Amino acid sequence: MTDVREMLGARFNAKTARFDAGPGGGKPTFEAIDVAHALGLVPAGLGREVLECCYLDAEVRPSPKLRVHVLNAVMGEWRRQEDALAAAKLELGFCQAMAEFARSMSSELRTKLEEAQGAYDSAKAQCWPRDAAAMLAPITLAALQEVAGCSACDACHGFPMVPCTRCGGTGYVSWSERTRATAIGRSKTVYRTIWAAMYNWIVALLRNAEQEAAEVMKRALTTREVA
Length: 227
What we know:
This protein is mostly helical and 227 residues long. Among the domains are: 49 residues; 78 residues, no CATH class. 65% of the residues lie in helices and 3% in strands. The chain is built from eight helices and two strands, in the order αββααααααα. Strands 1-2 form a two-stranded antiparallel ribbon. β1 and β2 form a beta hairpin. α3 packs across α6 and α7 crosses α8. The chain is elongated.
């Protein structure tokens, strides 16, 4: 079957557009109305919004609904990070207080203190920058453009049945760090050291939602073909 993303991209080019549904001669075809019907069966949510944003128009322009979905997801992750940091800080403070009250530092207490410090440092390192809110819009737009523009891996062709050294098993080729940095208006070094974690999280969020929605569309078209 032709990729549903290609079908969406061609949907409005011609009202009578037809799409191959399988290999060989005499293969069944889908018309634009079939594609519209399949898209309508995709549940409302982030995945459908990403599909429409990335493939229905030549320009990637996130809708207000898409922005809200991303914001809600980001706020949830942000709260998770802050909660993890607060819990680690509390545990570290407790261990430090125990060390203050102890007459001597036992090996067990020292180990506990070191583990608490390590957990706190790790939680802090995983937190996004404090000014992350200011970068949410440009990172989201760049991530959407990456999802819309990335092609299937030329080594496994989007079907990583075994670990693929070219795409790392994702099935697609991601943008380079330099391309991502340019897209969000930052240097490659700044992107890598400050914004890479947030960018990777958002692009994974969008890509996973898009892939799930595309699978729903594909199943809907397959069912329509059988019917």
